[in-house]
Design brief:
414 residues, alpha/beta, Molybdenum Cofactor Biosythetic Enzyme, Chain A, Alpha-Beta Plaits, Maf protein, six-stranded mixed beta sheet, five-stranded mixed beta sheet
Amino acid sequence: MIQAEIITIGDELLIGQTIDTNSAWIGEQLSLLGINVRQITSITDSEEHIIETLDKAKQKAQLVIITGGLGPTNDDLTKDTLVKYFNTRLVENKEILSSLKQKYENFGLPFDDVNKAQALLPENCIPLPNRRGTASGMWFEENGIVFISLPGVPYEMKGILQEEGFPRIKKHFNTPKVIHKTLRTIGIAESSLAEILKNWEKELAENNIKLAYLPSPGFVRLRLSAFDATEQTEKIITSKVKEAYRLIGEYIYGEDNQTLEQIVGELLKNNGKTLSLAESCTGGTIAKLITSVSGSSEYFKGGVVSYANEVKNSVLHVSTEVLNEYGAVSEQVVRSMAKNVCKLMKTDCSIAVSGIAGPGGGTEEKPVGTVWIAVSYNGKVSAKLFRLPYNNRERNITVASNFALNLLRKKLIQ
């Protein structure tokens, strides 16, 4: 199997100012190509440190991917260091220069010597055009080892690899056929899944299919992987996926790259239903998820972030008596919110959420993580209480939002 190393460059990564998401994404994408990432290293913007790390990487890896340090300012040292490392010189690339001039003209910005320097590339590299930014990627080959240098901006880095890097990698290394199949679950713990699936997992291993449990707050992804896969392997995976649905189908909401908000959107669209939201503790997070999907205007009309009780009362017409007797975080209140936002927005269905996100505000009766969610569907309202085990505000909001979408999903597939 091809061995790869990832090197991320930038002082901001080491002091925690910027979180390194590049490595995780690159590692995941390389695994899809059947390439094993043996090490990830984050280093400073230092010529000595860059050269030392490259020397170590090429001893064990056939592919080295570097991100960061390609900007036009003096603290970006990667390009000049690579020129020295590969014993070459900078030359002006006329195609890159023309593209840069056009980009700056389109943005109405002046094109000066600092910007022009972005068109200077090592003579012995293959330029990897950056259609989303100004710093080009670079492909070097030395003694059978491929080095790829990329800008550190995730949006730009991903674009270069998807459009230029990965196709070249696949061709250069003649990567094996790899199959990854992912089942996405919600509302069940990793340990519980493992117990239910223990025999199923054993049978996967007997067929050289690896299973990875990939948990995140509220979710667990099950990824089946087979390397040097054959047609028979594909048939076995298809069969085992069907079996998984028989075992844990109530928890599976999607497959592969599907998101919960995409699936809910498709169900709403296919059923010809419209949606409105009444959010309290989630503060508009559900609306953000829904509207992150292209075409959501076909089924989503709008929402009310009724954080204060007076808004619940004046806009959503939750009675003062109900609020005073049961409190904002109660079944009675979310039922009223769900029912009334449907009337207000004239929609077929709605979601209402009220809870205590924390870390303060909890009581013995209603501790942090207490969340009531109601769903109105075709005039009928159902509500469910969740006791989320987190004392983390962001996590409670995220999990509550996804659990709310999942309750609606279940209604739409009944």
